[in-house]
Each structure stands twice: as structure tokens, then as C-alpha cells.
Amino acid sequence: MSQFFQVHPENPQARLIKQAAEIIRAGGLVVYPTDSSYALGCQIGDKGAIERIRRLRQLDDKHNFTLMCCDLSQLGTYAKVDTAAFRALRAHTPGPYTFILNATREVPRLILHPKRRTIGLRVPSHPIAQALLVELGEPLMSVSLIMPGETVPMSDPHDMREVLEHQVDLIIDGGIGGISASTVINLSEGEAQIIRVGCGDPTPFEVEA
Question: Could you give the residue ranges of the DSSP H alpha helices within 45-137?
């Protein structure tokens, strides 16, 4: 049976955020809100928790996981960022964008793309996600909360409780969430490439013909 925390979406209660971080450090899976939609997260490098996410979402080993980071300095520990990429990141983080970048050696191999050694990274602006990341002191390995057979993320925490109460360890209720995933931009090959259009405006990354 999962725990269910009702957390204020603008002023998260420090006590509940601390408890949530302890659950994650102990190997737990957490559902939490971001600035795009709800996400499913676990501690970076926790093989058992990552396998639970793969089973829950029915993901193969080619799925790109995302590291949620609290700021650009933390992101820079896990990704190789050149000058052009840094400008793009500085202009669009925090926000509802996932950036595909070449990974550093700090990224556990089991969450890397098996062929390209790339990783998705985000700096979310949602106060609950930010508070959780600051409390953890390290990135949160995440995927959007899109259930098998569905095309949009789950948005109602009470529905999540009914569906997931025996499959995750904690659901953080921060109110009704969005139903669009983040916009994904590939910065790993020099010129920015739009991989997926979500709730982040893709216009700044469009290349004129």
C-alpha cells in the first residue's frame, strides 16, 4: 500500500518533502508533479527501482530516461555541455523542456541510451519538484506517468491512488496535473533538433528553411 501525501503546490511542507526524500533513498518509487505533468521517479542508479519502473511502464532498454536536476550546475555534472548548449539551457531552464545531451561518467550505465551514451535532463520549475530535488541533493531518475496503452499522462492524484497504490511507494498529491509531456530537444549533435513537441514552446529551436 503506497503512502499518499497532500503537499501544497506553491509552498511545499518541509516535513513531507523530507519524508518523501527518505522514501526515495530507501529504494522507493514516487509519483510527483512537475511543470509539465506528473512523473514517476526513483533514486539515480537504483537498479531495483529502475526495473520496477520498466515493468510498470512496460519500457524496453531503449527508452530514454530523464534526470531531473535542481539547477544547471547539477545538470553539468551529468552532461557534457558546450557553449551553444549552455546558452540554450540557460535561456530555457527551469521549464517544461527535456534536453538530450551526451552523458558524463557520472551517469549510471543502466539508464543510458545503449548505443548513443546520451541522457535526457530537465530542470523543472514546479515548487514541489524543486523542493524534493534540493532535499535529495542529487537528480531524480524520472519518466512521465503515462500508463501502458495510454497516450497522455495521468493527471488526477486520486485516480493514481486507485491504479497505483500497490505498485508505487508514495504518491505526492500536488493538485490536478497537466496532460502534456515536456518538449524534448536533442542538443547532443550540435544543432538543436526537436524530438517531441510538448508543453514547452518549440519555436526557439526551429531551424529556418
Answer: 47-57, 72-78, 83-92, 127-136
Q: Give residue-wise pLDDT tens across range 4-29.
A: 999 999 999 999 999 999 999 999 99
* The three grid cell numbers given for residue 170, joined into one nine-digit string: 508514495
Report residue 34 as a C-alpha cell.
512537475
Q: In whole angstroms, what is the distance from residue 69 CA to residue 77 CA?
A: 10
d(C-alpha 110, C-alpha 90), whole Å: 28
pLDDT band at 209 (very low <50, low <70, confident <90, very high): very low
Provide the residue ranges of all domains of the chain, joining segments of one domain with +. Answer: 3-199
Chain CA centroid to CA 33, Å: 10
- Per-residue model confidence (pLDDT) at position 207: 65
Cα–Cα distances (Å) from 178 to 35, 145, 209, in that order, read 8, 11, 32
The sign of the torsion formed by the CA atoms of 24, 17, 151, 189 equals negative
- The mean per-residue pLDDT over the stretch 23-52 comes to 95
**pTM of the predicted model as reported, rounded to 2 decimal places:** 0.93
> Three-state SS for 159?
helix
CATH number 1.20.1050.10 given to 3-199? no
Q: How far apart are CA 30 and CA 75, in angstroms?
A: 21
Nearest to 38 by CA among 178, 165, 188: 178
Q: Does the CA dihedral 137-141-144-150 come out positive or negative? A: negative
